[in-house]
Amino acid sequence: MSALKQGTAILATVLLSALVAVGCGGSDDDKGSGGGKTGDTSKVKTSDDAPKGDITMCMGKDTGGVHKPALAKFNDENPGANATLVELPESADEQRTQLVQRLKAKSKECDVLALDVVWTAEFAAQGWLADASDIVADREDEFIASTLDTVRYDGKEWAVPFNSNAGFLYYRTDQVDEVPATWQDAYAQGKAGDGLVYQGSRYEGLTVHFLELLYARGGDVLNEDGTKSTADSDETREVLQFMVDGIKDGSVPRSVLTMKEEEARRAFENGSATFMRNWPYAYTLGQEAPAIKGKFDVTAFPKFEGGESASVLGGYNLAVSEYSDNPSGAAAAINFLTGEEQQITYMKAATPSVLTSVYSDASVEKALPFAANLLSAIEQGRSRPVSPVYPQISEAISTNVYEALSGDASVDEAVTKMQSDIEKALATF
Amino acid sequence: MTSTPIASATGPAAPDTPPRRTSRTSSYGRSERRLAAILLAPSMLLIALVAAYPIGYAVWLSLNEYSVRVPGLSRFAGTRNYEAAFSGGFWEALFNTLVFTVASVSLELVLGLAMALAMHSAFRGRGVLRATVLVPWATITAVTAITWRSIFEPGVGFAPQLLAKVGIGEDIVWLGERGYAMSVLILADVWKTAPFMALLLLAGLQVIPEDVYEAARVDGATVWQRFVRITLPLLVPAILVALIFRTLDALRIFDLPAVLTQGSNGTNVLSLLAYQELTQNRLIGLGAALSVLTFAVVMIVSFLYIRFVGGNIKSLAKD
């Protein structure tokens, strides 16, 4: 019967494409890096000679249009050098994928790598970064101390802080009489008003917000040297219960379960929330939103009852690739981009600086009225767990917190599972 | 469009091939088979290169562990990756994938058939209709997903507000709850791929000879009788092909849930799970094991299709 045969032939074709897709999925991530082991990596020296040669920077898409002019300026000042930008995708996950592919192939394309603060340990462990201790050592005092924690791994510095970020509590000045002193207070006021929104989707953003509360309560998910999980604690239970209760009693709308930063911002800009946890970028945008324009302000995170206040650092670091042909040129470019003059320019474009001095610059204070708030938020900021298996740890946190928030698991179940998931991640080969 | 390769198979003229086995012993047959083998060799080699090698490699990867700490270090893992997959998210993802596949493909079949019948009937503007119906299918899946996410976004999208007005799902966060999230996922997929189903079925409809209907009319068959007794049986081969296409696609669904929900709230499907382990967590062995398992599921389902649905065609054709 030929219909059947034809069906089989078509089936075979479809299957074939399925097979190839599976095979390629596997072979994409070939083990074959065999790169240098940690400790074998070269050390970048800063040199007094003028930088020379081609310097390629690989970083996320230049959406703000700030990096290209910066490099043009660098090239003007250093006629012997030619710095160019390779723009990676906008999303951090995509940037990471692209960088990993290049580095596994030992590509010499990128001299300078822009790394999300949470990748630094992982990339260093893989032997993909040149030791940047000397660059940092010369300028250690300039940086906000907390930002340097994000470049350290295994007792060395592997990158130079480039920009930082810390969350704010946004509040409606027409609804809030007294700025909340604690998260509990913020939830209570939110319950009376239109609620508090945050990024509650199951992804990295939820991990960040959970850690903000957990750090504030005095808890942590890893022990000092990052070898054991400490997630199963009274602090974790208390914080998670607090978040779950918030959703149950209406202090936090259930819709946060589908929100990332952008959805939270839209809800706040619509005027449908009294409080919002978000990054500084929402401030400038909020001034253009008719429903809330002039009716909101920001504050550094409040304390958690029985604890302190804490924030979690975001941002990017700049590292020299182990495979770079021009490490001294790369170091010079990094020093230029992280220097005070350039950092002031970035800061005015709403990219928070890593240098303390920038925040007291008169022109910055004028352009960004919340500069002092931001500095204290970054100073009290802590880095996320530093570990080569951070992606798995983050997944263990966001997945289990989400299960509890959505009511699929009890707080107790979620915390127990979080602990065992993190233990499992730490035991990864 | 008078006939398509898919539909021509249903034509009455397909000649039966003579039984081959009788010539097996003759020397003529043997040399002919040798020639056939030589002629087929290049394509077999190509298939081996582009299909067999990657599959074999994926299986090999799934039997090893690759260190996330020390570059280049790997060790043989035996079945450990598979054990990890089975004790991890595999079963839930399989369940979600199957729910999604059964629900979306059956809805698409019903809707697609209705659309195909509408497009098949002669009326003015039929060409325009055929073109417009295909628009959702031509839309990039990621864009479709973003669109549906906005449609169901609480407080912003129109769907929750509209549904609340007619008394459905007030206070429901559609993408934030088990069951509801899956239904939005299915809805988005049906919206996007029902037109594709319709197109495949339309091709099947067009090769059913008009004189069969005419004869039925002369015999006094009603519209319903003509549909059930003529259209459906003659359409079965086209339906089978369409079902195979859509089922295998649905089993490998990735982009829609990746953008719509990132796999939260009971929408984590097999491909998404494999992707997360492979690229986000860089667990190459586990990711490969999940890919191999996904492949096995797809193989089993296709085998069942050929075995049972294919057999039905045979018996139908004999009637």
Entry keywords:
heterodimer, A: 429 residues, alpha/beta, D-Maltodextrin-Binding Protein, domain 2, five-stranded mixed beta sheet, four-stranded mixed beta sheet, 17 helices, globular, B: 319 residues, mainly alpha, MetI-like fold, two-stranded antiparallel ribbon, 71% helix, flat, disordered N terminus
Question: Can you walk me through this structure?
Answer:
The complex is a heterodimer of chains A (429) and B (319). Chain A has 429 residues and is α/β, with parallel strands linked by helices. Chain A has two domains: 53-164 and 314-382, Periplasmic binding protein-like II (D-Maltodextrin-Binding Protein, domain 2), CATH 3.40.190; 168-312 and 389-426, Periplasmic binding protein-like II (D-Maltodextrin-Binding Protein, domain 2, 3-Layer(aba) Sandwich). Chain A contains 17 helices and 13 strands. Chain A has helices spanning 2-28, 67-77, 92-104, 120-125, 133-139, 145-149, 183-192, 204-217, 234-248, 261-269, 281-286, 327-337, 340-348, 362-367, 371-379, 390-405, 411-426; strands at residues 53-60, 81-88, 112-116, 152-153, 156-157, 160-165, 168-172, 196-197, 275-278, 296-299, 311-312, 314-320, 381-382. In chain A, the strands form four sheets. A five-stranded mixed β-sheet of chain A has the order 2-1-3-12-6. In chain A, strand 1, helix 2 and strand 2 form a beta-alpha-beta unit. The termini of chain A are far apart. The model of chain A is unreliable at 1-39 (pLDDT under 50). With 319 residues, chain B is an all-alpha fold. Chain B has one domain (63-318): MetI-like fold (Orthogonal Bundle), CATH 1.10.3720. Chain B is 71% helix and 2% strand. Chain B has helices at 5-8, 27-62, 80-87, 90-120, 126-133, 135-138, 141-151, 158-165, 180-206, 210-218, 223-251, 255-260, 270-280, 284-318, and strands at 64-66, 74-76. A two-stranded antiparallel sheet of chain B has the order 1-2. In chain B, a hairpin with a 7-residue loop joins strand 1 (64-66) and strand 2. Chain B is flat and about 75 Å long. The relative contact order of chain B is 0.13. The model of chain B is unreliable at 1-15 (pLDDT under 50). At the A-B interface, helix 1, helix 3, helix 10 and helix 16 of A face helix 2, strand 1, helix 11, helix 13 and helix 14 of B.
